[in-house]
Amino acid sequence: MTRSCKAFEDLLQQAQRPVLGHLIRLTGSVHAAQDVLQSANVTAMEKQNAFEEGTNFVAWLSQIAINHHRNQTRKLATSSSVMLIDERLHEIIERRHRERMEQHRRENNWQRLNHCLQQLPDHQRELVEHFYLEGKTLNDLAKTTGRKANAIGQALHRARQRLIRCVQQTGDHSKAEVLSDPPISHQTAEIQ
């Protein structure tokens, strides 16, 4: 086996998981995706000289796999009058999947943040709720509490830091991004 053939096989092996994942989304079936990937692997081995070194191997193999999927779908459509699902439908399915995942992530973040909000001492939680959820200003809070606006700002800063630590401890560190998004009052309007 030549060195370039071995390198090609290594690239082929490394590309299996990402291409299979794409094919599963495309076909909707693990078994169908594995069949298409196997056919694509055979074609890739036959056409390995057509691959330009230094280009994206996963994209190259994905395109071969997509072409195999299209050919198989066409054959099925003509032989058993199965409806041909076009790329737009696959794009819609993939977009909806991404949207559902993003919505789940946001809901998870909100649950985590609400849990952490309940862990704050009452005075801090009330300040956070008045400032972020009700949209009151520091001056408004200073008037109602009898404290200085700077003191309110510092208390809010400490509450924010506690929330960040709590969110990080209850989930991975990327979940703390909730607190770096626009003010909470804007986010609650989206959720309600």
UniProtKB/TrEMBL annotation:
Residues 12-75 form the RNA polymerase sigma-70 region domain. The keyword Ubl conjugation does not apply. GO terms for molecular function: DNA binding; sigma factor activity. The keyword Transcription applies. It comes from the Bacteria. Keywords: Sigma factor, Transcription, Transcription regulation. Residues 111-163 form the RNA polymerase sigma factor 70 region 4 type domain. Pfam families: Sigma70_r2, Sigma70_r4_2. GO terms for biological process: DNA-templated transcription initiation. NCBIfam families: Sig-70_gvs1, sigma70-ECF. Belongs to the sigma-70 factor family. ECF subfamily. This is RNA polymerase ECF-type sigma factor. It comes from Rhodopirellula baltica WH47.
